[in-house]
Amino acid sequence: MNDVTSTVAWSPDGTCAWPAGTTASVGRSYEWLGWTGWSLGAYTWSYGYGCDKVYNGSTVHFVNGVFCAFLTTNTYYEPARVEGLADSRAAFFWSNRKDGTCAFMLSDNRRYGHGTP
Questions:
Q1: Which of 78, 45, 76 is nearest to 62 (CA)?
Q2: CA nearest 56: which of 93, 97, 110?
Q3: Biggest CA pair distance of the chain
Q4: Contact at 8 Å (CB) between 62 and 39?
Q5: Are 46 and 26 in contact (CB under 8 A)?
Q6: Distances from the Cα of 3 to the Cα of 33, 89, 104, 115, angstroms
Q7: How far apart are CA 71 and CA 79, in angstroms?
Q8: CB 78: neighbour CB atoms within 10 A?
């Protein structure tokens, strides 16, 4: 019904996530099935680069006023965040919630990956 994707790509050296002379990148995408009534509500995006980590995260609200007999259903991603660490590990953080009469019909699906620029 809707999806938030946060990505990071980095080249750590074991002591620094973003060492001098390397590149790092972040990306985000918000997707929703508009033809089913979903729309993008409020959202924020934050990202940063440093020796300790490369991070990227979004807080997003989707709303649908027709999904369930014209009663409002909401989904919230609070946040969807990923961090690339100096030792090459990735850390993932998420807190999703949903509300509305038919929120029970929605489920969470999570995917993880690891990349380098």
A1: 76
A2: 93
A3: 56
A4: yes
A5: no
A6: 9, 24, 17, 20
A7: 25
A8: 14
Q: What is the pLDDT of residues 48-62, one digit of tens each?
A: 999 999 999 999 999
Query: How does DSSP classify residue 105?
Result: G
* Per-residue pLDDT reduced to its tens digit, 33-90: 999 999 999 999 999 999 999 999 999 999 999 988 889 999 999 989 999 999 999 9
Q: Which helix (H) or strand (E) holds 100?
A: strand 90-100
Radius of gyration of the chain (CA): 17
Which residues, at least 6 apart from 41, have a Cβ–Cβ distance to it below 8 Å?
A: 60, 61, 62, 63, 74
Q: What is the residue-wise DSSP string for 16-77?
A: -SS-TT---EEEEEEEE-GGGTEEEEEEEEEEEE-SSEEEEEEEEEEEEEEEETTEEEEEEE
CA–CA distances in Å: residue 94 to residues 6, 38, 51: 11, 21, 23
Residue at token pair 């050296």: 13
